[in-house]
Design a protein that fits this description.
Mean pLDDT: 86
Number of strands: 2
Distance between the termini: 17 Å
Low-confidence stretches: 1-30
Shape: globular
Oligomer: single chain
Largest sheet: 2 strands, antiparallel
Radius of gyration: 27 Å
């Protein structure tokens, strides 16, 4: 083949371009940092320092969280008991998942080593170095999920304890309240979220910048060649992220659907009633899906945006900018976390959600303003890169606007969610129809914002401008992810408060307020993740096009190879979403059958009195009757946890295999020209489906929550003296919204979020193999088309 001379010529052009840029100004006329002949340490050292700072801040926050009171410290030992069950279930899931993923990573690493060792790309150790980068990315991505999960499952009990506080008694010894407050609960839950946010940022920066340094100091590798191999780091992170997101999403929604349909609709008990066998698995799922899954997703976006921007750079200063900006974002996010607090009292679903959102938004906005100031200093030091600075500003603003758009379509303070709730009067079918309509229409403003951002950045700095905008959007990820990871911690805290019958209604109002805020931050976090995934994927696609040395004239949309690739790529998100939806349905069916079996066919589940069964307790709970301790029955929650774990790990294999094999299939058989079309089709189609599913699911969820806020749920349980329902229409209304929420569960927490990773994984995988695809029959693939 002619690959060797072509690659050498390509590298000489890139190197000579940077040398010419550096020689354009006399050395004595420019600031010290404005030189374009930077050393590797000058490029990566700020990112390494920023990563170490993030990890130090994580350690401090972790020990601060561990110092907070637990349930036992405030006289609520039952909270610690249920919290320990949730943590045990979460760790069991991660161990099972990582056991299978370790086999996959080792096998894939071996294949990479063999492929890249067959023919020297740059040095004789290319195979070893690529495999090293792949393993490092996979290990750090998995570590971020593990550490975030451990802290989140510690934070839930402490959040409940902070909301409850120590009991306050009057002179007669009667309990009159507690010392806890909404601000105490918010502070503790946000601490747990901050650990997740900053461990992702810290590991991402230390890993990415450190790996780049290790590669660049190797003999025979320059900066450009090191960045090509560094794509393996992103591939490792993407591989773990995909399986973590898919398996976590299947787990959480299988348990959630089973708990809701049998518990709420059939049995008429509350969402987190401890007599529901699936309630522990449901709370475990909140962590494995929205903490470990989201953390791995954004870890991948974070490092992917840095790699894409650096790969597209034409000179050393442009390579350095994404590393420097990420370091600035760490400092800004750390300061922003200190501004998070609230003076709200906590009135449950009647709380002022706007005021609660401000508690978190002021921290995010402060971080954004500080970051823009630090980014301006970076651009000035690097020789006046003001075009790139405007792109960074556009990226940061784009992320904030998308978050607000998502909030409008998913918060019960606004018309879209209220319209879904109103359709509950005519049954679940109209709730489902309205929710789908809301999800589809929500694509319009989100896509308009993304398109404007992409066009603006491309006009200013071309493909590099789009890539650096993605870096700007993700620079303050530490606090952005903290507000998102806060959600499942608050949700778990509310569940624990409901499981302990001794906790008074006042405390549940506080946890309900935190939960309401968490629902909104979770929805806006998903919107942010989609926006960042689109920009990152586009940047990786541009980097792939450059690495494969494709002639732009051959990439016309009317070209049959490009068009066929686009059609194939546009199909992939639908197939991927279908597989994950079907998997949730299968796993949920197993949970439903198990819960029904425990409710009706388990005579071994009896109380201490030897007579009261689990079914008797369910009847008493649905009627609002207190259950004496000697008559209480504990369900077999471990069975549901085991079913969810086994099902989710089994069902994650097929979607993950398709995501990895599709670009390899097209690239090797048809060539990189068709693959460009496939990636473009996948990004366009995937963005639409992800936005629609995430927003529709969030709107259905909050329509059900709105039923709790406006009293529909309460009225649905009121009975006449003869035991008949006093408001049967309210019961029908509420049940219809619960069914809508159940339909939306896999939309917003399984299929929709996983599409972000599908887009990025296909793009980063293509980038890793770009030169291989180009070398096969001159870029025409094995079919020689």
């Amino acid at each position: 083949t002619t690959k060797g001379p072509r690659l050498r010529a390509h590298r000489l052009v890139r190197a000579s371009g940077r040398a010419a840029a550096g020689a354009a100004q006399p050395a004595g006329t420019m600031a010290p940092f404005a030189r374009n002949d930077k050393t590797v340490l000058e490029i990566a050292l700020p990112a390494l320092v920023g990563g170490v700072l993030a990890l130090a801040f994580t350690t401090y926050t972790f020990f601060s969280l561990k110092g907070e009171p637990t349930g036992k410290d405030v006289g609520r030992p039952l909270v610690d008991k249920y919290g320990a069950m949730i943590k045990e279930g979460a760790m069991a899931f991660l161990k099972e998942e990582y056991k299978w993923l370790s086999v996959f990573v080792v096998l894939l690493g071996g294949i990479l080593c063999a492929l890249f060792s067959v023919e020297d790309q740059h040095t004789k150790l290319d195979g070893v170095l690529t495999t090293f980068a792949f393993f490092l990315g996979a290990i750090l991505s998995a570590s971020a999920g593990w550490l975030g999960m451990m802290v989140a499952t510690d934070g839930n009990t402490r959040t409940t304890a902070a909301c409850a506080g120590k009991e306050v008694k009057d002179a007669q010894g009667k309990v009159t309240g507690g010392t806890g407050s909404l601000n105490d609960g918010l502070r503790v839950a946000f601490k747990a979220g901050s650990v997740m946010g900053f461990v992702v940022v810290g590991l991402g920066l230390v890993g990415c910048a450190g790996c780049f340094c290790v590669l660049a100091i190797h003999n025979g590798l320059g900066k450009t060649e090191s960045l090509q191999i560094l794509a393996g780091f992103g591939f490792g992170a993407s591989s773990i992220a995909l399986f973590a997101r898919v398996a976590g999403g299947i787990y959480t929604k299988a348990a959630d659907v089973g708990a809701d349909l049998v518990g709420k609709v059939e049995a008429g008990i509350d969402e987190d009633d401890p007599h529901n066998p699936a309630v522990i698995a449901d709370n475990v799922g909140d962590n494995v899906g929205d903490v470990a899954g989201m953390g791995a997703d954004l870890f991948e976006s974070y490092v992917g945006s840095i790699i894409a921007a650096a790969t597209l750079a034409k000179r050393d200063n442009e390579i350095a900018l994404p590393f420097w900006l990420s370091a600035c974002g760490v400092v800004a996010a750390m300061i922003g976390t200190m501004a998070v607090s609230t003076n709200e009292k906590g009135e449950g679903w009647n709380s002022n959600l706007g005021a609660l959102m401000w508690a978190l938004e002021k921290g995010t906005m402060l971080a954004g303003v500080l970051f823009l100031g630090l980014a301006a200093a970076c651009c000035h030091l690097l020789g006046g890169m003001w075009g790139a600075y405007i792109c960074v500003l556009i990226g940061l603003a784009c992320g904030m606007v998308i978050g607000k758009i998502t909030e409008y379509f998913t918060s019960f303070d606004f018309a879209p969610v209220k319209s879904i709730k109103a359709r509950g009067a005519t049954g679940p079918a109209t709730v489902t129809i309205q929710g789908l309509g809301v999800g589809m229409i929500s694509c319009v403003p989100t896509i308009v914002v993304l398109v404007c951002a992409i066009l603006g950045c491309a006009a200013i700095k071309g493909e590099y401008g789009v890539a650096i905008a993605a870096v700007g959007m993700l620079a303050t990820l530490g606090i952005t992810l903290a507000t998102d990871a806060y959600g499942p911690v608050a949700d778990n805290a509310g569940g624990l408060a409901e499981m302990d019958p001794a906790i008074p209604d006042e405390v549940r109002c506080i946890t309900d307020s935190l939960d309401a805020l968490g629902n909104t931050t979770a929805a806006t976090g998903k919107g942010f993740a989609i926006g960042s995934a689109v920009l990152t994927s586009l940047s990786l696609l541009a980097a792939f096009k450059e690495q494969a040395q494709l002639d732009v004239s051959l990439l016309a949309v009317t070209d049959p190879y490009v068009l066929s690739g686009m059609l194939f790529g546009a199909m992939l998100p639908y197939m991927f979403a279908a597989l994950t939806m079907i998997s949730v349905g299968k796993a949920a069916a197993e949970i439903i059958m198990e819960v029904r079996d425990q409710f009706h066919n388990r005579p071994d589940l009896v109380a201490q009195d030897g007579k009261t069964t689990l079914k008797d307790c369910i009847i008493m709970a649905s009627n609002g009757e207190p259950i004496p301790p000697h008559m209480d029955v504990i369900p077999d929650s471990n069975k549901c946890v085991a079913i969810s774990t086994k099902s989710s790990v089994r069902e994650m294999i097929a979607p993950g295999a398709y995501a990895i094999l599709a670009p390899l299939f097209v690239g090797f058989l048809v060539g990189p020209r068709c693959l460009v079309g496939m990636l473009a089709g996948g990004i366009g189609s995937g963005a639409m489906v992800a936005i629609m599913m995430s927003n529709a699911g969030g709107a259905w969820d909050n329509a059900k929550k709105y039923c709790e806020k406006d009293g529909t749920k309460g009225l649905s349980k009121v009975k006449n003296a003869d035991g008949s329902l006093a408001h049967p229409m309210k019961k029908t209304w509420y049940d219809a919204c619960v069914v809508g929420d159940t339909v939306g569960d896999p939309f917003k927490d399984t299929s929709g979020p996983a599409l972000n990773i599908l887009m990025k994984l296909m793009a980063i995988l293509s980038l890793v193999f770009a030169q291989y695809f180009e070398s096969i029959n001159g870029g025409k693939g094995l079919f020689k088309l």
